[in-house]
Specification:
The protein is α/β, with parallel strands linked by helices and 366 residues long. It has 2 domains: 84-121, no CATH class; 125-362, Rossmann fold, CATH 3.40.50.300. It has helices spanning 2-11, 88-96, 107-121, 141-154, 171-174, 183-188, 196-199, 223-233, 251-259, 271-283, 312-319, 331-334, 346-362; strands at residues 128-132, 159-163, 204-205, 211-213, 239-243, 262-268, 294-298, 323-327. An 8-stranded mixed beta sheet has the order 3-4-2-5-1-6-7-8, with helices on both faces. A hairpin with a 5-residue loop joins strand 3 and strand 4 (211-213). Helix 3 (107-121) packs across helix 13 (346-362) and helix 8 packs parallel to helix 9 (251-259). The chain is globular. It starts with a helix and ends with a helix.
Amino acid sequence: MTIELDQAVEKDVAPPARRLPGARRAVANQEPAAAAPDPTPVPPEPDPVPASDPPAVDDWNRFGEPESRSPVAILTAPEKPAPATWGRRRVLVRILSVGLAQPKPGAQEVEYRANRKLIRTTTWGRSVRVMVANPKGGVGKTPTALVLGGMFAEEGRPTVIWDAADARGDLTERAEGAPARCVSWVADAPGDYRVPGTIGALTAKQSSFADVLGSLTAREFDADSIDRVTWSLDRTYQVQVADTGNVAHSPAFQKTIELADMLVIPTTVTAGSVHAAVRLLERLQGTGLTANAVVALMRYGGPETPGLLPQIPGIFEAVGVGAIVGIPFDPVIARGTAIDTRALSRPSRLAWTRLAAAVATNIRTR
């Protein structure tokens, strides 16, 4: 073995493979012989063709339709709805089955879950600005701003409700908590409140997790004030809900309209409130806000104009709004104190969730 290895080293070739007892013949550890050259001459490769620009859009049609392929079908099990969480049918079934049965949700609960999902999952290209407006006083602008913003915040959307009136409004009084500072600080120095850690120090945190930026002292807002506050809020919140005043021709009101992506008009079932809302919509026909606007028809339990209620859908449809949502009476809103969205009645919560879903799906960023 030593002699064979020494001879292999001297010849600079691999040693021959030895056959072990009981094993197959090993393949010789030799490099394969080079293949004989092909006598046929190989033509030279042509010069590469320079890449050309893609055809214009109008030229795509001359290539014909692309080859159609059948999509791959992926079968999944249908999603099973979660058991009902409220309703008389749920209570009855649970009692009769001694707590063993899990009844399916009713139509109202299915709608409620679908609307919550719309509020939670609808996306926009940037922070969106919702304007709550009606030049008529006492129609529920401030409660609408608070509860509507609360519906967005409850679904995890960073939301601020702020006082955009030309003079001090009553947003702070209807909100929960008492902040040490207010919206005037932001208007005076917006650059100091452009991150969540600083703007959050001025707001009153609600039970819905919305932030309220109200007014604490008498002040006057002009167009520049609205512009500065909006600039600051854009950097922290996904949804801004502006509670406006009653002077539709004021510079603050006009600037809020210019910056808004969505218009929500609360009205009661009274002739004066409906007429004021219609006049506002007629004035805003050229702004792009009216086609997607949502009307919140508030029922306070107070006096209403006889015969007006059945006419309201046709009145607003003639102006061309996006949706009309009825809001039932709720003592939490009617008593005039701080509004806690957790205390809303079930019919009221269903209606407000329906309103928020209509707003979310009708928003068009401008």
